[in-house]
Amino acid sequence: MPDSVTTIDAVRRDTLRLLAPGTALRDGLERILRGNTGALVILGTDRTTDSMLSGGFPIDVPFSATRLRELAKMDGAIVVDSDVTTIISANVQLLPDPTIPTDETGTRHRTADRVSKQTGFPVISVSKSMNMIALYQNGIRHVIEDSSAILARANQAVATLERYKMRLDEVQRNLSALEIEDLVTIRDVASVAQRTQMVLRIAEEIEAYVVELGTDGRLISLQLEELMAGVAAERALILRDYTPLRIGRKTRTPEQAFADLDSLDSTQLLDLAAAATAIGFAAAPDLLDQPISARGYGLLSLMPRIPESISERIVAHFKSLKDLLAASTDDLQAVEGVGETRARSIRDGLSRIAESKLMERFS
Protein backbone atom coordinates (compact mmCIF):
# COMPACT_ATOMS: atom_id res chain seq x y z
CA MET A 1 0.00 0.00 0.00
CA PRO A 2 1.14 3.60 -0.55
CA ASP A 3 2.87 5.28 2.36
CA SER A 4 0.22 8.00 2.76
CA VAL A 5 -0.73 9.22 6.20
CA THR A 6 -4.28 9.75 4.99
CA THR A 7 -4.76 6.18 3.84
CA ILE A 8 -7.10 4.36 6.21
CA ASP A 9 -7.81 0.67 6.47
CA ALA A 10 -11.24 -0.77 5.73
CA VAL A 11 -12.13 -1.38 9.39
CA ARG A 12 -11.34 2.16 10.50
CA ARG A 13 -13.09 3.50 7.40
CA ASP A 14 -16.31 1.79 8.52
CA THR A 15 -15.96 3.33 11.98
CA LEU A 16 -15.38 6.79 10.53
CA ARG A 17 -18.57 6.42 8.52
CA LEU A 18 -20.43 5.97 11.82
CA LEU A 19 -18.77 9.17 13.06
CA ALA A 20 -19.30 11.26 9.94
CA PRO A 21 -21.43 14.43 9.91
CA GLY A 22 -25.10 13.63 9.49
CA THR A 23 -25.00 10.50 11.67
CA ALA A 24 -26.69 10.21 15.05
CA LEU A 25 -23.40 9.35 16.75
CA ARG A 26 -21.66 12.47 15.42
CA ASP A 27 -24.64 14.58 16.43
CA GLY A 28 -24.49 13.19 19.96
CA LEU A 29 -20.73 13.76 20.26
CA GLU A 30 -21.04 17.33 19.07
CA ARG A 31 -23.81 17.93 21.59
CA ILE A 32 -21.41 16.72 24.30
CA LEU A 33 -18.75 19.15 23.08
CA ARG A 34 -21.18 22.06 22.98
CA GLY A 35 -22.32 21.16 26.47
CA ASN A 36 -18.72 21.58 27.65
CA THR A 37 -18.48 18.04 29.05
CA GLY A 38 -16.35 15.01 28.25
CA ALA A 39 -17.20 11.41 27.44
CA LEU A 40 -15.79 7.93 26.86
CA VAL A 41 -17.77 5.73 24.45
CA ILE A 42 -17.02 2.10 23.52
CA LEU A 43 -18.48 0.84 20.24
CA GLY A 44 -18.97 -2.86 20.89
CA THR A 45 -19.01 -5.40 23.69
CA ASP A 46 -17.92 -8.97 24.35
CA ARG A 47 -16.56 -11.04 27.24
CA THR A 48 -13.27 -9.15 27.22
CA THR A 49 -15.09 -5.85 27.47
CA ASP A 50 -17.41 -7.11 30.20
CA SER A 51 -14.43 -8.28 32.28
CA MET A 52 -13.05 -4.74 32.52
CA LEU A 53 -16.34 -3.01 33.39
CA SER A 54 -17.06 -1.99 36.96
CA GLY A 55 -20.14 -0.31 38.37
CA GLY A 56 -22.61 1.60 36.23
CA PHE A 57 -25.92 0.18 35.14
CA PRO A 58 -27.38 -1.60 32.10
CA ILE A 59 -30.02 0.33 30.20
CA ASP A 60 -30.37 -1.40 26.79
CA VAL A 61 -32.26 1.41 25.04
CA PRO A 62 -32.29 2.53 21.39
CA PHE A 63 -29.46 4.88 20.57
CA SER A 64 -30.15 8.58 20.07
CA ALA A 65 -28.01 11.70 20.11
CA THR A 66 -29.95 13.25 22.99
CA ARG A 67 -29.64 10.10 25.14
CA LEU A 68 -25.90 9.99 24.53
CA ARG A 69 -25.62 13.63 25.56
CA GLU A 70 -27.59 13.15 28.77
CA LEU A 71 -25.73 9.99 29.80
CA ALA A 72 -22.40 11.74 29.21
CA LYS A 73 -23.21 14.13 32.07
CA MET A 74 -22.25 11.29 34.39
CA ASP A 75 -18.54 10.58 34.86
CA GLY A 76 -18.51 6.97 33.68
CA ALA A 77 -18.09 5.48 30.22
CA ILE A 78 -20.92 4.57 27.87
CA VAL A 79 -21.09 1.21 26.07
CA VAL A 80 -22.83 1.18 22.68
CA ASP A 81 -23.27 -1.75 20.31
CA SER A 82 -21.03 -1.87 17.23
CA ASP A 83 -23.85 -0.83 14.89
CA VAL A 84 -24.67 2.21 17.06
CA THR A 85 -28.31 1.18 17.39
CA THR A 86 -28.43 0.44 21.13
CA ILE A 87 -26.95 2.00 24.26
CA ILE A 88 -26.05 -1.05 26.34
CA SER A 89 -24.84 0.47 29.60
CA ALA A 90 -23.79 3.79 31.09
CA ASN A 91 -21.73 5.34 33.88
CA VAL A 92 -19.39 2.35 33.96
CA GLN A 93 -15.79 2.43 35.14
CA LEU A 94 -13.23 0.93 32.78
CA LEU A 95 -10.37 -1.11 34.21
CA PRO A 96 -8.06 -2.07 31.32
CA ASP A 97 -4.75 -3.83 31.78
CA PRO A 98 -2.40 -1.12 33.13
CA THR A 99 0.64 -2.81 31.57
CA ILE A 100 -0.60 -2.11 28.03
CA PRO A 101 1.77 0.56 26.63
CA THR A 102 0.33 3.94 25.66
CA ASP A 103 1.76 7.31 24.72
CA GLU A 104 -1.31 9.18 25.95
CA THR A 105 -1.08 11.37 29.06
CA GLY A 106 -4.61 12.31 30.13
CA THR A 107 -6.54 9.75 32.18
CA ARG A 108 -9.47 9.55 29.76
CA HIS A 109 -7.22 9.24 26.68
CA ARG A 110 -4.95 6.64 28.30
CA THR A 111 -7.99 4.57 29.22
CA ALA A 112 -9.45 4.89 25.73
CA ASP A 113 -6.18 3.80 24.12
CA ARG A 114 -5.72 0.79 26.41
CA VAL A 115 -9.33 -0.36 26.15
CA SER A 116 -9.18 -0.19 22.37
CA LYS A 117 -5.94 -2.19 22.26
CA GLN A 118 -7.19 -4.79 24.73
CA THR A 119 -10.66 -5.33 23.23
CA GLY A 120 -10.13 -4.50 19.57
CA PHE A 121 -13.23 -2.29 19.64
CA PRO A 122 -13.14 1.38 18.65
CA VAL A 123 -13.24 3.76 21.61
CA ILE A 124 -14.16 7.44 21.36
CA SER A 125 -12.83 10.02 23.77
CA VAL A 126 -14.42 13.47 24.02
CA SER A 127 -12.09 15.92 25.75
CA LYS A 128 -13.64 18.86 27.56
CA SER A 129 -10.35 20.70 28.12
CA MET A 130 -9.06 20.23 24.56
CA ASN A 131 -12.49 20.56 22.90
CA MET A 132 -11.67 17.49 20.80
CA ILE A 133 -13.12 14.17 19.69
CA ALA A 134 -10.57 11.37 19.24
CA LEU A 135 -11.07 7.85 17.91
CA TYR A 136 -8.83 5.02 19.17
CA GLN A 137 -8.74 1.91 17.02
CA ASN A 138 -6.12 -0.70 16.15
CA GLY A 139 -3.48 1.19 18.10
CA ILE A 140 -4.08 4.39 16.12
CA ARG A 141 -5.38 7.70 17.45
CA HIS A 142 -7.46 9.62 14.92
CA VAL A 143 -8.65 13.12 15.76
CA ILE A 144 -12.12 13.89 14.40
CA GLU A 145 -11.79 17.30 12.78
CA ASP A 146 -14.35 19.92 11.90
CA SER A 147 -15.83 19.48 8.41
CA SER A 148 -14.55 22.84 7.19
CA ALA A 149 -10.90 21.85 7.74
CA ILE A 150 -11.37 18.47 6.03
CA LEU A 151 -13.30 20.07 3.18
CA ALA A 152 -10.49 22.56 2.52
CA ARG A 153 -7.96 19.74 2.22
CA ALA A 154 -10.35 17.69 0.09
CA ASN A 155 -10.85 20.56 -2.36
CA GLN A 156 -7.10 21.02 -2.60
CA ALA A 157 -6.69 17.29 -3.28
CA VAL A 158 -9.37 17.42 -6.00
CA ALA A 159 -7.53 20.30 -7.70
CA THR A 160 -4.33 18.23 -7.60
CA LEU A 161 -6.19 15.22 -8.98
CA GLU A 162 -7.48 17.29 -11.90
CA ARG A 163 -3.94 18.32 -12.85
CA TYR A 164 -2.61 14.77 -12.60
CA LYS A 165 -5.57 13.42 -14.56
CA MET A 166 -4.89 15.89 -17.39
CA ARG A 167 -1.29 14.70 -17.56
CA LEU A 168 -2.44 11.07 -17.49
CA ASP A 169 -4.78 11.72 -20.42
CA GLU A 170 -1.86 13.21 -22.36
CA VAL A 171 0.47 10.25 -21.87
CA GLN A 172 -2.37 7.82 -22.63
CA ARG A 173 -3.12 9.57 -25.93
CA ASN A 174 0.57 9.49 -26.80
CA LEU A 175 0.77 5.78 -26.00
CA SER A 176 -2.28 5.03 -28.14
CA ALA A 177 -0.75 6.77 -31.16
CA LEU A 178 2.62 5.06 -30.67
CA GLU A 179 0.82 1.70 -30.51
CA ILE A 180 -0.62 2.28 -33.98
CA GLU A 181 2.84 3.06 -35.36
CA ASP A 182 4.43 0.21 -33.37
CA LEU A 183 6.90 2.64 -31.78
CA VAL A 184 6.14 1.95 -28.11
CA THR A 185 9.02 1.61 -25.66
CA ILE A 186 8.97 0.40 -22.08
CA ARG A 187 9.41 4.05 -21.05
CA ASP A 188 6.02 4.92 -22.60
CA VAL A 189 4.24 2.07 -20.83
CA ALA A 190 5.95 2.81 -17.50
CA SER A 191 4.97 6.49 -17.80
CA VAL A 192 1.30 5.62 -18.20
CA ALA A 193 1.42 3.08 -15.37
CA GLN A 194 3.24 5.58 -13.13
CA ARG A 195 0.75 8.39 -13.81
CA THR A 196 -2.21 6.06 -13.39
CA GLN A 197 -0.88 4.90 -10.04
CA MET A 198 -0.40 8.51 -8.89
CA VAL A 199 -3.97 9.36 -9.87
CA LEU A 200 -5.33 6.30 -8.05
CA ARG A 201 -3.45 7.22 -4.87
CA ILE A 202 -4.71 10.78 -4.88
CA ALA A 203 -8.22 9.41 -5.41
CA GLU A 204 -7.75 7.07 -2.44
CA GLU A 205 -6.80 10.05 -0.29
CA ILE A 206 -9.91 11.92 -1.40
CA GLU A 207 -12.07 8.86 -0.67
CA ALA A 208 -10.79 8.97 2.90
CA TYR A 209 -11.86 12.61 3.13
CA VAL A 210 -15.29 11.75 1.71
CA VAL A 211 -15.76 9.10 4.39
CA GLU A 212 -14.96 11.59 7.15
CA LEU A 213 -17.14 14.30 5.61
CA GLY A 214 -20.28 12.15 5.49
CA THR A 215 -23.18 14.20 4.17
CA ASP A 216 -20.87 17.20 3.79
CA GLY A 217 -18.83 15.35 1.18
CA ARG A 218 -21.50 14.77 -1.46
CA LEU A 219 -20.11 17.25 -4.00
CA ILE A 220 -16.55 16.03 -3.49
CA SER A 221 -17.77 12.48 -4.07
CA LEU A 222 -19.46 13.48 -7.35
CA GLN A 223 -16.31 15.26 -8.56
CA LEU A 224 -14.21 12.24 -7.68
CA GLU A 225 -16.55 9.87 -9.49
CA GLU A 226 -16.44 12.00 -12.63
CA LEU A 227 -12.65 12.38 -12.64
CA MET A 228 -11.99 8.70 -12.00
CA ALA A 229 -14.45 7.27 -14.53
CA GLY A 230 -12.64 4.58 -16.50
CA VAL A 231 -9.22 5.02 -14.88
CA ALA A 232 -9.11 1.61 -13.20
CA ALA A 233 -10.38 -0.09 -16.38
CA GLU A 234 -7.73 1.67 -18.47
CA ARG A 235 -4.99 0.51 -16.09
CA ALA A 236 -6.27 -3.07 -16.36
CA LEU A 237 -6.18 -2.94 -20.17
CA ILE A 238 -2.67 -1.46 -20.28
CA LEU A 239 -1.30 -4.14 -17.98
CA ARG A 240 -3.07 -6.86 -19.97
CA ASP A 241 -1.52 -5.41 -23.12
CA TYR A 242 2.04 -5.18 -21.85
CA THR A 243 2.70 -7.30 -18.75
CA PRO A 244 5.28 -9.96 -19.68
CA LEU A 245 3.65 -13.37 -19.46
CA ARG A 246 6.86 -15.00 -18.29
CA ILE A 247 9.96 -13.85 -16.43
CA GLY A 248 12.53 -16.58 -16.82
CA ARG A 249 10.70 -19.75 -15.89
CA LYS A 250 8.05 -17.99 -13.85
CA THR A 251 4.66 -17.05 -15.24
CA ARG A 252 3.43 -13.51 -14.75
CA THR A 253 -0.11 -12.12 -14.63
CA PRO A 254 -1.53 -8.58 -14.77
CA GLU A 255 -2.84 -9.12 -11.24
CA GLN A 256 0.75 -9.56 -10.02
CA ALA A 257 1.69 -6.33 -11.78
CA PHE A 258 -1.22 -4.59 -9.99
CA ALA A 259 0.08 -5.81 -6.64
CA ASP A 260 3.68 -4.83 -7.33
CA LEU A 261 2.71 -1.35 -8.50
CA ASP A 262 0.53 -0.91 -5.42
CA SER A 263 3.45 -1.89 -3.19
CA LEU A 264 5.74 0.88 -4.48
CA ASP A 265 6.16 3.71 -2.01
CA SER A 266 5.99 7.36 -3.10
CA THR A 267 9.72 7.66 -3.74
CA GLN A 268 9.90 4.45 -5.77
CA LEU A 269 6.90 5.47 -7.84
CA LEU A 270 8.76 8.56 -9.07
CA ASP A 271 11.38 6.27 -10.62
CA LEU A 272 10.28 5.08 -14.07
CA ALA A 273 12.68 2.14 -13.91
CA ALA A 274 11.09 0.98 -10.65
CA ALA A 275 7.61 1.24 -12.20
CA ALA A 276 8.78 -0.74 -15.23
CA THR A 277 10.28 -3.43 -13.00
CA ALA A 278 7.03 -3.62 -11.01
CA ILE A 279 5.12 -4.27 -14.24
CA GLY A 280 7.46 -7.19 -14.89
CA PHE A 281 10.17 -5.97 -17.24
CA ALA A 282 13.61 -7.32 -16.36
CA ALA A 283 15.99 -4.67 -15.07
CA ALA A 284 18.69 -3.72 -17.59
CA PRO A 285 20.84 -0.63 -18.32
CA ASP A 286 18.75 0.26 -21.38
CA LEU A 287 15.48 -1.03 -19.87
CA LEU A 288 13.35 2.01 -20.64
CA ASP A 289 14.39 2.33 -24.28
CA GLN A 290 13.57 -1.23 -25.26
CA PRO A 291 10.75 -1.50 -27.84
CA ILE A 292 7.62 -3.41 -26.92
CA SER A 293 4.38 -4.22 -28.75
CA ALA A 294 0.85 -4.15 -27.42
CA ARG A 295 -1.25 -7.29 -27.57
CA GLY A 296 -4.37 -5.43 -28.71
CA TYR A 297 -6.73 -5.55 -25.73
CA GLY A 298 -6.93 -1.77 -25.45
CA LEU A 299 -7.82 -1.16 -29.08
CA LEU A 300 -10.34 -4.00 -29.21
CA SER A 301 -12.06 -2.62 -26.09
CA LEU A 302 -13.00 0.46 -28.12
CA MET A 303 -14.95 -1.63 -30.60
CA PRO A 304 -18.68 -2.01 -29.88
CA ARG A 305 -20.41 -5.37 -29.64
CA ILE A 306 -17.31 -7.55 -29.41
CA PRO A 307 -17.64 -10.07 -26.55
CA GLU A 308 -14.63 -10.44 -24.29
CA SER A 309 -14.30 -14.09 -25.29
CA ILE A 310 -13.91 -13.06 -28.94
CA SER A 311 -11.32 -10.42 -28.00
CA GLU A 312 -9.36 -13.07 -26.11
CA ARG A 313 -9.35 -15.35 -29.15
CA ILE A 314 -8.30 -12.54 -31.48
CA VAL A 315 -5.39 -11.56 -29.23
CA ALA A 316 -4.34 -15.20 -28.80
CA HIS A 317 -4.43 -15.69 -32.57
CA PHE A 318 -2.49 -12.60 -33.72
CA LYS A 319 -0.19 -12.25 -30.66
CA SER A 320 0.46 -8.52 -31.23
CA LEU A 321 -1.40 -5.36 -32.19
CA LYS A 322 0.93 -4.87 -35.15
CA ASP A 323 -0.16 -8.18 -36.69
CA LEU A 324 -3.80 -7.49 -35.81
CA LEU A 325 -3.77 -4.13 -37.61
CA ALA A 326 -2.17 -5.77 -40.66
CA ALA A 327 -4.76 -8.57 -40.73
CA SER A 328 -7.18 -8.83 -43.63
CA THR A 329 -10.84 -9.76 -43.39
CA ASP A 330 -9.93 -13.32 -44.36
CA ASP A 331 -7.27 -13.43 -41.64
CA LEU A 332 -9.84 -12.33 -39.04
CA GLN A 333 -12.30 -14.99 -40.18
CA ALA A 334 -9.72 -17.63 -39.25
CA VAL A 335 -10.39 -16.81 -35.59
CA GLU A 336 -13.04 -19.04 -34.01
CA GLY A 337 -16.31 -17.17 -33.56
CA VAL A 338 -15.47 -14.39 -36.06
CA GLY A 339 -17.68 -14.72 -39.11
CA GLU A 340 -17.54 -12.73 -42.32
CA THR A 341 -19.78 -9.90 -41.09
CA ARG A 342 -17.97 -9.50 -37.80
CA ALA A 343 -14.60 -9.71 -39.54
CA ARG A 344 -15.52 -6.83 -41.87
CA SER A 345 -16.83 -4.84 -38.90
CA ILE A 346 -13.62 -5.39 -36.94
CA ARG A 347 -11.42 -4.58 -39.94
CA ASP A 348 -13.26 -1.29 -40.63
CA GLY A 349 -13.47 -0.40 -36.95
CA LEU A 350 -9.76 -0.92 -36.36
CA SER A 351 -8.92 1.27 -39.33
CA ARG A 352 -11.15 4.11 -38.12
CA ILE A 353 -9.85 3.93 -34.56
CA ALA A 354 -6.22 3.82 -35.73
CA GLU A 355 -6.76 6.86 -37.93
CA SER A 356 -8.46 8.82 -35.15
CA LYS A 357 -5.68 7.99 -32.67
CA LEU A 358 -3.04 9.31 -35.07
CA MET A 359 -5.06 12.46 -35.75
CA GLU A 360 -5.39 13.09 -32.00
CA ARG A 361 -1.64 12.94 -31.61
CA PHE A 362 -0.82 15.42 -34.34
CA SER A 363 -3.79 17.77 -33.92
Please provide a brief summary of the model:
The chain has 363 residues and is α+β, with helices and mostly antiparallel strands. Helix content is 56%, strand content 13%.
Describe it.
The protein contains 17 helices and 10 strands. The chain has helices spanning 10-19, 24-34, 47-51, 65-71, 107-119, 147-181, 186-213, 218-227, 231-242, 254-263, 266-269, 272-279, 297-301, 308-318, 321-326, 329-333, 340-362; strands at residues 39-43, 53-54, 57-62, 77-80, 86-94, 123-127, 132-137, 140-144, 246-247, 250-251. Helix 6 (147-181) runs antiparallel to helix 7 (186-213) and helix 7 (186-213) packs across helix 12 (272-279). Strands 1, 2, 3, 4, 5, 6, 7 and 8 form an 8-stranded mixed beta sheet that branches. The protein folds into 3 domains: 10-144, YojJ-like (1 (3-Layer(aba) Sandwich), CATH 3.40.1700.10; 148-289, Up-down Bundle (Ferritin), CATH 1.20.1260; 297-362, DNA polymerase, domain 1. The two termini are 38 Å apart. The chain is an alpha+beta fold and 363 residues long. The model is unreliable at 1-7 (pLDDT under 50). 56% of the residues lie in helices and 13% in strands.
Percent range of helical residues: 55-70%
Write down the secondary-structure element order. HHEHEEHEEHEEEHHHHEEHHHHHHHH
Count helical runs.
17
Amino- and carboxy-terminal Cα gap: 38 Å
State which percent range the strand residues make up.
5-15%
Describe the main β-sheet briefly. Answer: 8 strands, mixed
What would you report as the Rg, rounded to the nearest angstrom? 28 Å
Average residue pLDDT: 90
Q: How many β-strand runs?
A: 10
CATH top-level class of the largest domain: Mainly Alpha
Low-confidence sequence ranges: 1-7
Query: Which structural category fits the helices and strands?
Result: alpha+beta
* Count of folded domains: 3
Assigned CATH superfamily of the largest domain: DNA integrity scanning linker region
The CATH topology of the largest domain is given as: Ferritin
CATH architecture assignment of the largest domain: Up-down Bundle
Shape: elongated
